Amino acid sequence: MEPSVQKLDVYRIAHDLAIRIHSMTLALPGFERFEEGQQIRRSSKRVSASIVEGHAQRRHKAQYLSYLYRALGSSDESQEHLLLLKKTGSLSDPAVFESLSKSCEELSRKLFRLIHAIEQRYETPRYLEITPVEATESVPDDEDTSG
Questions:
Q1: At 135, is the pLDDT very low, low, confident or very high (cuts 50, 70, 90)?
Q2: Which end of the chain is more exposed for a tag (fewer CB within 10 A), N or C?
């Protein structure tokens, strides 16, 4: 993993949140650890993983944004799983719910801002703007090349 991705706020928040959610799921009732607990662990870990994958593709705007949108979707999914755990009574500690929920909201806001900034300000690197000379340019249209 590139050390530069670890400098991103969104990565650090996502990584920390995934660890905190993982720990929270270990305290869930037995049946929930393998149902909703498994789902929230996967979605929360997918956020930081998508950020890392996108960061590796940052030279290509569309791919970078695609991974960041996936990260945003997974962050929102994690928030939905938290809400379901609270509403079903499986996550009964209100302080844990509030802390994790606020972190999910902060992460989604920061991801949205990062996506917006990339969409507005991203410039394709110069080496990607240069188009190769097409083969048809080297042969005049009126010459017969069939020999």
A1: very low
A2: C
CA–CA separation, 21 and 45 (whole Å): 9
pLDDT recorded at residue 143: 53
Residue count of the chain: 147
d(CA 88, CA 37): 12
- What is the rounded distance in angstroms from the CA atom of residue 59 to the CA atom of residue 137? 29
Q: Is 9 inside a domain boundary?
A: yes
Q: Give the contacts of 8 (CB within 8 A, at least 6 positions apart).
A: 51, 55, 114
Q: Is the pLDDT of residue 141 over 60?
A: no
75: CATH: 1.20.1440.60
Q: In this model, does residue 66 exceed pLDDT 70?
A: yes
How many domains is the chain partitioned into structurally?
1
